[in-house]
Amino acid sequence: MKKIMILSSNYTGHGHKSLCDAVTEQLSKRPDVEYQVIDGFELIGKAGVSASKMYGPITQNAKTLYDWFFQLSNRSTSNPMEELFAAMIYQRFMRRLRAFQPDLILTVHPFFNGSVLTLLNRYRLDVPFVALQADIINIHRSWCDPRAILTICPTPEAYETSVKLHGMPPEKLEIIGFPTRARFCDYARTHEHPEYQPGRPLKCLLMSGGEGTGNLKSFALQLLQNVDCTLDIVTGRNAKVKKSLEECLTPKFQGRVKVHGFVEAMQELMASSDLVIARGSPNTLMEAVVLNVPILITGSLPGQEADNPAVMTTHNLAALCENPASAPAIIQALLADGGRRLRDISRSQREYRNLDNAKIIADRLYEMSAPGKVSYSRIARRMPPPSVQEAMEKFRTWAKS
User: Which terminus of the chain is less hemmed in, N or C, by CB atoms within 10 Å?
Assistant: First the structure.
């Protein structure tokens, strides 16, 4: 039996969990594979989980703060953050390691790459460590640790950033593609997305992401007032926004708008649309590409998503809309000449997408897992743990510099 430990996150958006699900769905098809998914922030304890739950409020209300932290932690020189995290996760991680004894560790969240590799080196455990990058171009330095046996890049742009900006050895990288959950890939295999036919209202899907971020009301009003369309709005987990939009839009535009919360069968709702309108979250963008639905990108988070719109438009996978007021004119341009631009985008998506990325990644993990090769008896139970206090002092000094 091959054992694979996966480090993910449940609360920092929905993207890391989606990536994890895409891979584990494929691993589950192998009877000789056992996997264990761990929320990396749970290894810190309650404080870590509470901190991870702040992702939604911060990305909604304090984007400048989010960008500051991204840039601070993205310094090219070595920093004590990895040492601090290693000290904070030490006890819970080592306990999980002894109990499960994995043949391979996969991470789909960058915050724990360096800290876990530091602990593995400390205990001289030759556990193959693989990083699966969750971003398509703005790769954080924490994704790029040459001590990992392999780092999987979802795009050529991610590969270039890893090599040129962060100095990753090319032989430690492999471009496979962005993994998408089976529900989207399977639906795409059995349902060909129809091209928009002029003469009827445009079916638009306005999405905010799992945390309910985005200027949904402004975009919705611009579309409903100025475009011949019907509109589905997905607010994610944000029940407050859902209620507010229903109260504002439903009475005035009854029959043309429907507000959804968190949607399980997103592949069906997305595939029934002519146009997906969403921010530059890589998971949402790639899910739409897989389903062959044209995209209008409404912006991006600073830092990790900053250049996602440029990547998508360069490959002609989407159009860009910088603000709600410009949305009607851009959509009219997409619909001009019988919807020629929409057809062009759809054609590019079909050429770009690969419905087997998750399977290819799972196959690589399977190949790299070798039961019995790691000796967990080497773990020195009496070795003193890293000092959280000392690591914290080093981090404070570094952050002030």
Answer: C
